[in-house]
Specification:
Elements: E1 6-10, E2 14-19, E3 26-33, E4 40-44, E5 48-51, E6 57-59, E7 65-68, E8 71-73, H1 77-85, E9 91-96, H2 108-117, E10 119-125, E11 128-130, E12 135-139, E13 142-148, E14 153-160, E15 165-172, H3 175-181, E16 188-190, H4 191-199, E17 212-215, E18 218-219, H5 228-241, E19 247-255, H6 259-277
Parallel strand pairs: 4-9, 11-19, 14-19, 16-17
Antiparallel strand pairs: 1-10, 2-3, 3-9, 4-5, 6-7, 7-8, 12-13, 13-19, 14-15, 17-18
Helix pairs in contact: 1-2, 1-5, 5-6
The structure holds zinc ion.
Amino acid sequence: MPTEIAQATLCGPCAFDGVGLHTGAGCAIEVRPAGIDAGITFVLDGHLRVPALAEYIVDTSRATVIGRDGVSVSTVEHLLSALFAMGVSNADIHVRGPEIPVLDGSGRPFVEAIECAGILEQARARPLLVITQPLVVARGEQLVIALPSERFRVRFVADFPAPIGVQFFDGEIAAQEYARQIAPARTFGYLHEVEALRTRGLALGGSLENALVFTQDGPMQPLRWQNEVVRHKVLDLLGDLSLLGLWPLAEIVAIKSGHELHARAVRALRQRFLADLAPGSHVRG
Ligand SMILES: [Zn+2]
């Protein structure tokens, strides 16, 4: 039997405000404690509750967007990644504005606020997703594989045009390692791409304060690690995997993947899980 991990929430609320990366609009959020088995829920327009689950993904083209009934919130992946990996399984996220604020482009401000608010363990085990059969989703050269494993670990291979090139990450996902090795990795982009996005009305909140920008010659700012890009890809992947609503006992192998393929993998894993819970079906242990 796998080791049980307790559910957890925050000891008190924490709040953030700033611009949204894509809209450039001012956005404010407050993350509040929630009870056992509540899960993570977005509260939009003051009342519309949207669970942070794969079924509520409405767009993955530039960021992961969650919504229902025509109301949505964009760029949820960094905040969700931080809550998920730091072990916060129950919380309400009250959102004002169209996006989660980008802050410094990484998960670090969220991790620091979570640590500052404090994490409260709750008296029930966190639901686990035990993988017994490999799952493979692919699109072109992109691949995501979920393999049975006694621990949650991630291997990621990123391969971007020069000067980024091929980068690799391999590690177990645990709170302290995440806080030190993954959360500080920033959103990144190419200068020429940023200009193209702006003309399409995207990346309007992007700046050298919240994104690592590469030119042909290299990064415009000092890197936090030589492989900061793949560490950020892991940060994004964890945000998308949080939409399982479960802690996966799996090894996730991701090759050149992005939000769209992550969403497909998470939907497929949840469908399997929900099918296993259906009456009369075999429940894997
Ligand atoms: Zn990101």
